Amino acid sequence: MKRGANRGARVAGIVFVVGLAAGAAMAGGGHGGGHGGAMAEGHGAMGGHAHDRWVDPPAEYAGRRWDRWDDAALAARGREIFQRNCAVCHGSDGRGTGPMAASLQHKPADLTRHFHGGTGTKGDAYLFWRVSEGGTVEPFRSSGSAMPAFKGMLSEAERWAVLTYVHQAFHRGRTAAAQEARGHGDGDGHS
């Protein structure tokens, strides 16, 4: 019985990663990256999915904010959780090419193609919503997202830890985006 429970948790982790990636793609990559309107379709050959609009998080998530994106200890904890629950779909490198990715209808997002830029925190709420509810809510359910709702599997602190890790490991940081906007840097670095 325990073996079946572990397998179910592993599958749920895979689905989590897929949904997180899809959410990051739709959110434009994180806090401050919200579009508020139309989005360009597609995310390249590896990202695989097209989203045509920003989806605001529901009221119960809309006020969520996070100010610990640079917390190294939290990111280290998030890395452990990511490797256990997310890498099977998104891959250890976050590129959406984990061992389960090819078998999924809604391909995992390439987490390296998104960044936290600009100002504001609307993306914080969006990403936390996506990790919490996964593909169980619209419009993600009807698009075939296999991401599980992690609110029943991970504590709030664990969900934020995963997002902190994803931000630090795979997203261009706010500093790099700000430098790029001012005409400095190549925009490829992480902060």
From TrEMBL:
Residue span of region Disordered: 29-51
Cited InterPro entries: Cyt_c-like_dom, Cyt_c-like_dom_sf, Cyt_C_IC, Cytochrome_c-type_DH
Which Pfam families does the entry mention? Answer: Cytochrom_C (PF00034)
| Gene3D superfamilies per record | Cytochrome c-like domain
State where composition is biased (Gly residues): 29-47
Record key words, sorted: Electron transport, Heme, Iron, Metal-binding, Signal, Transport
The residues the entry assigns to the signal sequence are: 1-27
Q: Which residues cross the membrane?
A: none
Q: Which PANTHER family match?
A: ALCOHOL DEHYDROGENASE CYTOCHROME C SUBUNIT, BLL4482 PROTEIN-RELATED
- Annotated protein name in UniProt: Cbb3-type cytochrome c oxidase subunit III
Organism of this sequence = Inmirania thermothiophila
